[in-house]
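ARCHIVE CARD
CATEGORY: sequence design from structure
SOURCE FIELD: tokenized fold
FIELD CONTENT:
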């Protein structure tokens, strides 16, 4: 799980290969009020075929990167509510274990059981 740089969103990945983007204010409101009327999930992405193992928000753009046991890194535009699939995908030879954007947003590190790669 990861928080967006501004703290307004959180993203979680799961064993069913889905990614959920949640509104933090709605999460807090739901917990404080204990009501089922508040729905914090604002996006769900389905484009991996295995467990989600890493997530990272871009520092300045509306992009969420995800890594998976399916050996792919995928980039999603989380600003568009109708989008369910990645707009870009990178294939690795090993399952993904970590993702991190540089503060500038120009680079992303991808960690696998093999050496780290830069995109």
């Amino acid at each position: 799980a990861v928080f967006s740089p501004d703290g307004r969103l959180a993203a979680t990945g799961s064993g069913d290969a889905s990614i959920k983007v949640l509104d933090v204010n709605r999460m807090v409101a739901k917990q404080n009020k204990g009501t089922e009327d508040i729905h914090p999930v604002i996006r769900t992405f389905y484009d991996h075929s295995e467990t989600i193992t890493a997530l990272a928000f871009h520092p300045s753009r509306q992009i969420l990167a995800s890594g998976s046991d399916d050996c792919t890194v995928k980039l999603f535009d989380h600003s568009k509510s109708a989008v369910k699939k990645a707009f870009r995908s990178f294939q690795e030879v090993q399952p993904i274990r970590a993702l991190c954007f540089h503060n500038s947003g120009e680079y992303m590190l991808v960690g696998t059981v093999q050496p780290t790669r830069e995109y």
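CARD ANNOTATION: The chain has a mean pLDDT of 92. The first strand starts at residue 2 and ends at 3.
SHELF: design records, drawer C
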